[in-house]
Design a protein that fits this description.
Layout (H helix, E strand, L loop, with lengths): L10 E5 L5 E4 L2 E5 L5 E2 L9 H11 L4 H8 L3 E3 L5 E11 L2 E14 L12 H4 L10 E5 L5 H14 L4 E5 L7 E2 L2 E2 L7 E5 L3 H12 L3 E4 L5 H12 L3 E7 L3 H4 L3 H5 L6 E6 L6 E7 L2
Helix pairs in contact: 5-6
Length: 283
C-alpha cells in the first residue's frame, strides 16, 4: 500500500477471500499485489492470515481487553481512526456477548478540517460571549455533517462556552483511552460511548454545560431528550440526515423537540463535502 498511487486515503476495506478495496477522494478501487489499481479479477485477495494478523495488531494481541468496544461494531485507534468490524454474532440470554469468525474490517481515516465552521460561526454565535443559537446541521450521508459539527464545537468552546459532547459513536472527538484524538476545544467535556439519554442526564447533573453537542439525531426519543435540554436552558448543536429542511420538518422526532433549534445549516457535496447551501433562522 505504501507504493500505491493514492490520493487522500479515506478507507481501507479487508474482506475475507475478496479483493482488497481502498477509497480516496476519487472513489473506491481495488489494489493488485503489485500495489496498482486493478479490476477485481486481478486484485489482491485478502486471506484469513491477513485478517488474523491485523486483528492482533489493532487489539494489541488482547481481544478481551477491547471486547466491550468491539461489541459496538468498531474499534478506535490512536489518532482517532476507526475500524468497523463484521463477523458472526454470538448471543446469550438475548444479549450480544461477542463477535467471532471475523470476516471483514473497514479502516476509516479520521479527518478533521480546522476552519470548516468559519463560514457559519458568526451566525451560530451572533454576539460573541453572549449566547449560542441552537443549531441543526442537515445533509445526506457523506456531505461533511460531523466534520462541520466538530469544528463548530471547537470554535464555540474557544469562544468561552462550556461544552459537553455526547459522543455516542465516538465519531466527533474520536477518543482513544479517554483522550480526544481530534480537536473539540479546550472547554469541552466528552462523554464517549454514552447513549444520548444517559449522556444528557449525566451532563445536566454533573457537568453544567452551556452547550450540548450530539450527532445523528432521528429517533423518536431524541425529540424528548432535546426538549429536556431546552427546558434546562442548555443550547444544542446536532446533526441529522436529510435532503433539506422541508423534509426534516416532517420527521416525528422533531415534533417532540419543536422549538429547540433556532438555526438550520443545510449541506451538500455540490462543490465537495461540506458545501454550505443555506443557513436558515427558524427560531
Amino acid at each position: 500500500m505504501s507504493r500505491a498511487p493514492l490520493g487522500e486515503l479515506e478507507e481501507v476495506r479487508l474482506r475475507l477471500q475478496r479483493p482488497l478495496m481502498l477509497k480516496d477522494r476519487t472513489g473506491y478501487f481495488y489494489l493488485s499485489p503489485q500495489a496498482q489499481p486493478a479490476p477485481s479479477s486481478r486484485a489482491y485477495l485478502v486471506t484469513g492470515d491477513d485478517l488474523e494478523r491485523t486483528l492482533q495488531l489493532i487489539t494489541e494481541s488482547s481481544w478481551y481487553a477491547w471486547e466491550q468496544e468491539i461489541l459496538g461494531g468498531y474499534l478506535t485507534l490512536p489518532g482517532g481512526h476507526r475500524v468497523g468490524i463484521a463477523g458472526q454474532a454470538v448471543y446469550s440470554g438475548g444479549s450480544l456477548k461477542t463477535i467471532r469468525s471475523i470476516s471483514s474490517l473497514n479502516f476509516r481515516r479520521a479527518r478533521e478540517v480546522l476552519g470548516a465552521a468559519d463560514s457559519v460561526i458568526k451566525q451560530v454565535v451572533p454576539r460573541p460571549g453572549e449566547r449560542v443559537l441552537s443549531t441543526l446541521i442537515v445533509s445526506p450521508p457523506g456531505c461533511g455533517k460531523t466534520t462541520l459539527l466538530r469544528d463548530l464545537t471547537r470554535q464555540v468552546a474557544g469562544a468561552g462556552f462550556q461544552v459537553v459532547v455526547i459522543d455516542e459513536r465516538s465519531e466527533i472527538a474520536s477518543s482513544y483511552q479517554g483522550v480526544p484524538q481530534l480537536d473539540v476545544g479546550l472547554q469541552t467535556d466528552v462523554l464517549d460511548g454514552y447513549t444520548k439519554e444517559l449522556g444528557v442526564q449525566h451532563a445536566l447533573r454533573a457537568l453544567a454545560p452551556q452547550v450540548v453537542v450530539t450527532d445523528e439525531i432521528g429517533q423518536q426519543r431524541d425529540g424528548w431528550i432535546l426538549a429536556e435540554l431546552a427546558r434546562s436552558g442548555v443550547k444544542v448543536m446536532a446533526t441529522c440526515h436529510g435532503e433539506g429542511w422541508e423534509q426534516v420538518k416532517r420527521r416525528s422526532w422533531l415534533k417532540d423537540g419543536l422549538g429547540v433549534f433556532e438555526l438550520v445549516v443545510i449541506l451538500s457535496r455540490r462543490l465537495g463535502p461540506g458545501t454550505v447551501e443555506s443557513v436558515l433562522r427558524i427560531g
